[in-house]
């Protein structure tokens, strides 16, 4: 039934700043943006071994929930300390510090400059599946 995570959507009130920031994070501009000219209201990047999709959408299109909800998605990295330090250096704030969770398992999370939580994980299971 489920075949994988299709995309991850973050929201930002300042889309121009968010597109610039995530273009730096991913070392490339979005491969897809709408509208095609001017400041995007929606933008997508592909990254990683599986070409996973990361998207930004203008906060005015954020789904309205009757009560708080959400998820913390963790992106696998090969060197969690380096990835964490890079994001903090780019302006993210530490939310959870780099923490060892088990033999070979590490996690951390940051809050991006636009208020979204971004988790990082260094997972031997994920790494073994992608060798």
Could you characterize what this model shows?
The protein has helices spanning 15-25, 80-89, 124-129, and strands at 7-12, 32-34, 42-47, 52-58, 74-76, 93-102, 105-111, 117-122. The mean pLDDT is 91. It is α/β, with parallel strands linked by helices. A four-stranded mixed β-sheet has the order 1-4-3-2, with helices on one face. Strands 5-8-7-6 form a four-stranded mixed β-sheet.
Helix and strand sequence: EHEEEEHEEEH
Strand arrangement, largest sheet?
Answer: 1-4-3-2
- Strand tally: 8
Shape: globular
Overall mean confidence score, pLDDT: 91
What is the CATH-assigned architecture of the largest domain?
Answer: Roll
- Helical content class: 10-25%
Annotated CATH topology of the largest domain? 2,3-Dihydroxybiphenyl 1,2-Dioxygenase, domain 1
Helix-and-strand structural type:
alpha/beta
* CA gyration radius, whole angstroms: 15 Å
CATH superfamily label of the largest domain:
2,3-Dihydroxybiphenyl 1,2-Dioxygenase, domain 1
List low-confidence stretches. none
- What number of structural domains do the residues give? 2
* Biggest sheet layout: 4 strands, mixed
The number of distinct helices, counting runs of at least 4 residues, comes to 3
**Beta-strand percent range:** 35-45%
CATH class of the largest domain: Alpha Beta
Write the layout of secondary structure elements.
Layout lengths: L6 E6 L2 H11 L6 E3 L7 E6 L4 E7 L15 E3 L3 H10 L3 E10 L2 E7 L5 E6 L1 H6 L2
Parallel strand pairs: 1-4, 5-8
Antiparallel strand pairs: 2-3, 3-4, 6-7, 7-8
In short:
With 131 residues, this protein is α/β, with parallel strands linked by helices. The protein has helices spanning 15-25, 80-89, 124-129; strands at residues 7-12, 32-34, 42-47, 52-58, 74-76, 93-102, 105-111, 117-122.
